[in-house]
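Record type: monomer structure entry
Structure origin: computed from sequence
Chain ID: A
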Amino acid sequence: MKIDRFEDIVAWREARILAKMVYDAISKNEKFARDYQLRNQAIDAAVSTMSNIAEGFSRRSNKEFSQFLFISKSSAAEVESIFYVALDQSYISQKAFDDVYEQAEKVAKLDSGFIKYLSARVKKYKTQ
């Protein structure tokens, strides 16, 4: 499948789902919504997962795109870590935690797979 727009990238679509899940989890708990620092950090990290995929794609360079995918992957890990805090503060249920964690893992794995693919393409062109 040819990718013409960042919206065609499966990792971006899954990161969009992650961002929605984070917003939903925050909106369901008043204490989480009022914990401005944690709330904002969670939102920033979730939005970063999808934004960095889009920004990297726009660079039109496999090497630069890979760097942005690494940032997206790191932001997914940040969401996971933040949601441990939210769980420990009883802002979210274990199920909500598990769902967000699983989605963040999915995004990270898709980012990793895309990084490997792009890296192989860079190496292929260097050897030709």
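Annotation 1: The mean pLDDT is 94.
Annotation 2: The chain has five helices and no strands.
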